[in-house]
Amino acid sequence: MQITGIHHIAIICSDYERSKKFYIEVLGCSVINETFRAARNSYKLDLRIGKDQIELFSFPHPPTRPSTPEACGLRHLAFAVENLEETVFELQSKGVEVEPIRVDEITGKRFTFFQDPDALPLEIYQS
């Protein structure tokens, strides 16, 4: 087996229009494709962020996340940024609450967390 990378990250949201706006207008993702799947009463929105892809799904009445961020399963999604302070400022100017900046004790790099509209923990990590 030769895994060459991660193809996409899939996120299920509770309010499709709110999350679509957040990922496009706040995080700056661009739309690759948007599909409504009538049989599932569900949208699938393919988004590009840098070289990576996020699939944003809507389903009727998805269960809430058990806890943040220590539930079993995917812990959080981390985005690489070149200027942490500038990114924090931009997020805050768009009404996003951002935690205080911390330093990774292993790498010495700086990072912080914020949340998407469904309280999914998102990290920005100084590259």
What does this structure look like?
Keywords: Metal-binding. It holds the Pfam family Glyoxalase. This is VOC family protein. Residues 5-127 form the VOC domain. It is a single chain. This protein is α/β, with parallel strands linked by helices and 127 residues long. It folds into two domains: 1-63, 2,3-Dihydroxybiphenyl 1,2-Dioxygenase, domain 1, CATH 3.10.180; 65-127, Roll (2,3-Dihydroxybiphenyl 1,2-Dioxygenase, domain 1), CATH 3.10.180. 17% of the residues lie in helices and 37% in strands. It contains two helices and eight strands; from the N terminus they run βαββββαβββ. It has helices spanning 16-26, 84-93, and strands spanning 9-13, 30-37, 42-49, 52-58, 77-81, 102-103, 110-115, 121-126. The strands form two sheets. Strands 1-4-3-2 form a four-stranded mixed sheet, with helices on one face. It has a four-stranded mixed sheet with strand order 5-8-7-6, covered by helices on one side. A hairpin with a 2-residue loop joins strand 3 (42-49) and strand 4. The model has no long low-confidence stretch (mean pLDDT 91).
